[in-house]
Design goal:
alpha+beta; Dna Ligase, domain 1; six-stranded antiparallel sheet; 23 strands; binds adenosine monophosphate; binds glycine
Length: 422
C-alpha cells in the first residue's frame, strides 16, 4: 500500500508517523514534507496547488490513497479533482470545505439550522460595516475576514475603535486580499476553547479525543496569536456532560444540516468550540485536522488511522469501533525567536538523538542541509509525551526539551498547566 500525504507541517508529520504503523504500508510520499517527514517518507517539492501535477505524481508512484493535511488545497477543490481522476483521497470536497473556506457560509448554515454560535452580521460594504459598529454599544467585537487568511483572519477587538480599524484593514486596505472583501462581525464570547475532531463519511461519524490548543505566543496567554504554541488532550474542560451536549447540539445538527443542503461531508470536521456559560458554541469550523492538536490527539489513537480514513472514503465508518488510549498527551511547540512576527531561519538544530524513547518529535519547519538539520520556519518542532496523568505528560515533555538546541529557541513553559487543577 502506498500513501501520499499533502502538506509539510507538524500535523502532516504526525499523520505520516501514525499511518506508518499500519503493517500494510509499503511507501509513504509527502508533498512537500519537511526534514522530519523525510525520515519516514519520500518527500517531493511539488506545489500543493497544481492538482494536475499532484494527480500525475500519485499515478506515477502508484499511490493507493491520498490524505490532504492543509485547508488551502481542500478549499480549492483538490478532493474533487482527485476523485475526477479516480484517485482515492481523504478530505472534504470543495463545496463542503466551504465550512472553513467561507466564514459567511458557515455562519449562515449555523443560523439556518439553529446551531449555537456567536451572534453575527455580515457585510460586503465597508461603510455599512462601520455604521453597524457605530450603532452598537461599546463592547468587544470579533471581526472576521470571510475567506482564508492563513489563520490570521479573525481579530478579537477590545472595543469599537479596534473593530473599525480591523474593518478598514480588511475591507479597504485588503491586508488579506480578496479574503477580506466580505467580513463577519460577531459578538465576543468567553470561556474555554476546545477542539473536537469529527471524522465523517457523509453518513456516520467518529470523534477523536478532544484537545485544547494554546494559541498565544507567550506564557499566561499573553502576546500575539500564533498558529498554535502547544496542545494537550484530552481536555478536562470538555466534561462528559458537555461533550454529549456538544455532540447533540453542534456535531449532529451540523452534519445533518450539511446533508439537508445536499452537501456530502467526508473528512475531518474540526469543531472549534467555546464553552460558554450558556453551553458549547461554535467559534469556527475547519475542514481538516488541527495543528498542533493532531500532535497530541494521534498519539492517543489506538485504532489504525489508515483504516479510519479508508472507512470514511468508503462510507463504512459506522462499522468501525474506535479505540482511544485513556492516557494524556502534551505537545509543546519549539518556535524560532520572534515568531509570529519576524524571525530568522537556518539555525542548526541539535540534541534530537538522545531523547527518551517515549518522547515524540514532530517536525514543523525543518530541512536538511547535508548532515545538518536546520530550522526552516516559525514553528520548528512539536515535542509530545504521553503519560497516564496530564501533569506527568507535561513533566516528560519539559524534561526532554532542554536537550534540544537551536539559536533563539522559544517555547511556552505552561502548556496544559491551566487544566491540571480541573
Ligand atoms: P477563528 O479564525 O475563527 O478560529 O478565530 C481565531 C481565534 O479568535 C479563536 O481561536 C478564538 O480565540 C478567537 N475568536 C474567534 N471568534 C471569537 C468569538 N466570537 N469570541 C471570542 N473569541 C473568538
Ligand atoms: N490549531 C488551530 C488550527 O489548526 O486551526
Amino acid at each position: 500500500m502506498n500513501i501520499l500525504i499533502i502538506g509539510g507541517g507538524g500535523r502532516e508529520h504526525a499523520l505520516a508517523w501514525k499511518i506508518r504503523q499500519n503493517p500494510e504500508i509499503k511507501r509513504i510520499y509527502c508533498i512537500p514534507g519537511n526534514g522530519g517527514i523525510e525520515e519516514i517518507a519520500e518527500c517531493c517539492a511539488l506545489s500543493m496547488d497544481d492538482f494536475g501535477r499532484l494527480a500525475a505524481f500519485a499515478r506515477e508512484k502508484e499511490v493507493d490513497f491520498t490524505i490532504v493535511g492543509p485547508e488551502q488545497p481542500l478549499v480549492e477543490g483538490i478532493v474533487d479533482y482527485f476523485r475526477s481522476q479516480k484517485l482515492p483521497v481523504f478530505g472534504p470536497i470543495k463545496s463542503a470545505a466551504r465550512m472553513e473556506g467561507s466564514k459567511i457560509f458557515a455562519k449562515r448554515l449555523m443560523a439556518k439550522y439553529g446551531i449555537p454560535t456567536a451572534r453575527f452580521s455580515e457585510f460586503g460594504n465597508p461603510a455599512a460595516a462601520l455604521a453597524y459598529i457605530d450603532s452598537l454599544p461599546e463592547q468587544p467585537l470579533v471581526v472576521k475576514a470571510d475567506g482564508l487568511a492563513a489563520g490570521k483572519g479573525s481579530v478579537v477587538c477590545p472595543d469599537r475603535a479596534g473593530a473599525r480599524r480591523s474593518v478598514d484593514e480588511m475591507m479597504n486596505r485588503r491586508i488579506f486580499k480578496d479574503a477580506g472583501a466580505r467580513v463577519v462581525i460577531e459578538e465576543c464570547m468567553s470561556g474555554e476553547e476546545v477542539s473536537l475532531f469529527v471524522i465523517a463519511d457523509g453518513k456516520d461519524y467518529l470523534t477523536l479525543t478532544p484537545a485544547q490548543d494554546y494559541k498565544r505566543a507567550l506564557d499566561g496567554d499573553r502576546g500575539k496569536n500564533t498558529g498554535g504554541m502547544g496542545s494537550y488532550a484530552p481536555t478536562p474542560f470538555l466534561t462528559a456532560e458537555l461533550r454529549d451536549r456538544a455532540i447533540r447540539e453542534v456535531v449532529e445538527p451540523t452534519l445533518s444540516a450539511l446533508q439537508s443542503e445536499g452537501i456530502e461531508y467526508t473528512g475531518v470536521l474540526y469543531c472549534g468550540l467555546m464553552l460558554t456559560a450558556d453551553g458549547p458554541k461554535v467559534i469556527e469550523f475547519n475542514c481538516r485536522f488541527g495543528d498542533p492538536e493532531t500532535q497530541a490527539v494521534l498519539p492517543l489513537l489506538k485504532s489504525d488511522l489508515l483504516e479510519i480514513v479508508q472507512a470514511a472514503h468508503s462510507r463504512s465508518l459506522g462499522k468501525l469501533r474506535l479505540q482511544l488510549d485513556d492516557a494524556h498527551a502534551v505537545c509543546v511547540v519549539l518556535a524560532s525567536g520572534g515568531y509570529p512576527d519576524v524571525y530568522e531561519t537556518g539555525k542548526e538544530i541539535r540534541g534530537l538523538d538522545n531523547l527518551p524513547e517515549d518522547v515524540l518529535v514532530f517536525h514543523a519547519g525543518t530541512r536538511w542541509e547535508g548532515e545538518k538539520l536546520l530550522a526552516a520556519g516559525g514553528r520548528v518542532l512539536g515535542v509530545t509525551a504521553v503519560d497516564s496523568e496530564l501533569p506527568g505528560a507535561a513533566r516528560r515533555v519539559y524534561a526532554a526539551i532542554p536537550q534540544i538546541h537551536f539559536e533563539k529557541i522559544h517555547y511556552r513553559s505552561d502548556i496544559s498547566r491551566r487544566a491540571w487543577k480541573k
